[in-house]
Amino acid sequence: MSIRVRLALFGLLVVTLTLAAFTLAFYGLFAAGGSNGQDQQLATRADQAVEALATAGRDEFTPRTVPAPVNPAESIDVFVIVLDAAGAPLSSTGEIDGAAPVIPAGVLAAADAKGKAIATIETTPGVRLRVHVRPWSRADLGLSGHVAVAQSSRRVENDLRVGRIFLIAAAIFAFLVAAIAIWLVIGRALRPLKQLASLTNEVGVTQDLGRRLPVPGANDEVRRLSESFNGMMSRLEDAHGRLSGALDSQKRFVADASHELRTPLTTIRSNAGFLLQHPDARTEDREAALGDIASESERMSRLIQDLLTLARADGGFHLEKTDLDLAGVVQDVARQAGNLHPGRQIRADVVAGRVSGSADGIKQLLWILIDNAVRHTSADGRIRVGLEQQDGVARLLVADDGEGIAEADLPRVFDRFYQAGAARSNGGSGLGLSIASWIVEEHGGRISAHNNDHGGATVVVELPSLEAQAAQPIAAPLPETEDAKGAVAEAGAVDSPLPKPTA
User: Fold this and answer.
1) Domain shared by 117 and 239, yes or no
2) pTM higher than 0.90, yes or no?
3) What are the φ/ψ torsions at residue 466 (nearest 5 degrees)?
4) Would you say residue 182 lies in a domain?
């Protein structure tokens, strides 16, 4: 049974009970009003009859017949019966079968006891009379008796019958009108639910999460339901979009990882096969094959380590951060990089910088940026690592005088496995800058890459300083500032000092 039918039945039940209560109450009032009206009319006529008897002569109290008496079996006119003390009729303006109706002795006794009596009697089968009995007395004449004013009950019964028919017809009409109105109103009220069910089915079939319910103008539950459903659909559409993007990204990630792993594995397998098939190969050939195996194994090891780092990042891993003096970390990494690459001119220009960060994470970030700069500079190239703190931001820069980054590649240098054309031959995996971007995001900062005036590239990392975090915790990466853009231009000159912080 549908909800519309259940609501309609419940509404009709309420309407039925209400109509029944109203009809019974109205009929009761109508019936009481009809009886009271008849009794009041009879009482007035009885008072008039008693007053007339009080002044009547003696001859008026002798038994007599009245011409053209009322027949209560056929007429609803009021008639009067005058009775003597023994209850015998002296005169009557109404007769049934040629005789005055007989008033029961009990009614006469009640009139003597209370001064009046009202009753409904049935003198003959099918003829019911409503009578009002009053005693009368003429002490001057030594006479007494009763006056009975009567009227057929058929008039009141006819009125009640007509009233019943009218009430029943009105109740049936009201019930039908209410049933139609309830059905239409419930249908209109449930229309948004039908639209919701239809829209849900369509979304399930078409997978179109952009569908929305129309929002009615009235500020009621239906409007709130429509707004809530539309809000849920918007959130579901956003979540589906993010999920689709994540799945697409993961597919590309798996495809790129497979591609990157295929090359070293192919090289290792080929050289291993060569060594197995040529055990008597020349020494220089064997050494070259073993060197290729060792080199590609190291490359594959770095790639797998980078993949594990990114997998941990995607899995929700967070770096543990403490109060950190960036100056010491930058100087240590720059010194170690200079020892590792003695041919490069690696110089550190450090002013100051304190952040809440991970020492290991910052070191990994610096090594990624310096290693990237080393890969893109000549054997005697120059690399500059700078650090300053200004306006609540600790700004870290790594600049080189290498070949720079093509303008078309700048927007994608931090994408996973993305390598610019010149970079594909330097042995990199395309994951280092992606890991660097994640480390910066973990510190609530931002990272950007630009070309400098010396033809090389400059990577700028901005991290919120301890003072800025204490004043207002950073919940999102810092926006790019004009100071950062200006610092890139100045940092591009690897021989020039880092711009000094302003007061």
Assistant:
1) no
2) no
3) -60, -40
4) no
